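Suppose a classmate hands you a notebook page containing two proteins, each written out with its sequence and a corresponding row of structure tokens. How would you begin to make sense of it? This section walks through that situation. The first entry is reproduced here exactly as it would appear on such a page.
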Amino acid sequence: MKYEHFLKIMENYRSFSDNVSILYKIGFDLHEGEYPTVEQVEKILDTVIESHYGKEGVDWVTWFIFESNWGEKDWSTCDACNENGELICYSFESLYEYLEKLKNGIHK
């Protein structure tokens, strides 16, 4: 996948997620109920990422979104570091580069 496509996917998902949070604050729950839209969109994202980077790629994208808060977490310890102790997957670009290496068998 080209970086430009990856970035568009990630930015659009982030925008969707931000909008879901705003709607929840004013009383619309898109996680549960009659129209659980979030689950459907998450499945779309997972399918796209898995088709290019496998299940491990999905795990890294999920980690990046939820554990690193889109790469904005203030890291006092290195939860996801390479063999040199350097933080990996701390930005869209670094996540993409890691996934591309993973796809090519460099991180296996």
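The notebook's second entry, a different protein, reads as follows.
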Amino acid sequence: MREGTAARFEAEFALSAETTRSDAGPEAQAIAIKMSGERAAELSMAERAKNAEGSGAMSGLKIGMRAKSLADIVVSLISRAA
């Protein structure tokens, strides 16, 4: 996700930085700082989600969910045959 949005985020951060350095007024600067913080949080959450997706615990959970689904299908087929 980050690779696909890196250029957009970089441009937005540059605009926010330009606003905070300018004489745009305290309200505009506060909005730019707030938006930068929100973007940073968004990037952080995306990075954490990416790391969690590749973790061993997530892989184990996915295997368990597939096994349960497979067991449900087998039980359903057996109960229909009986």
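A careful reader of the second entry would note: The chain has one domain: 2-81.
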